[in-house]
Write a structure and sequence with these properties.
Structural class: mainly alpha
Strand content: under 5%
Low-confidence stretches: none
Number of helices: 5
Mean pLDDT: 88
Helix content: 55-70%
Length: 66
């Protein structure tokens, strides 16, 4: 979504109000949780739905993709 919107991580960080390191953790899939308020802010800035930026993978799928 960031590429579609031609938005850098720094710009998203400024608009959402999250630190660059926290956004980086979210972007790389290393986050274990996300607040609904954070998800709402990201979707608001990127003009998208949660499903556009989230993907579910069960533990078995995570093991095979690493």
């Amino acid at each position: 979504m960031m590429a579609k919107r031609k938005m850098s991580l720094n710009e998203l960080s400024d608009k959402v109000g999250l630190t660059l390191s926290n956004l980086s953790i979210l972007k790389t899939g290393k986050a274990k949780a996300i607040r609904f308020s954070t998800l709402e802010a990201i979707c608001n800035v990127l003009e998208c739905q949660p499903g556009d930026i989230l993907e579910y993978a069960n533990d078995e799928q995570k093991t095979t993709t690493r």
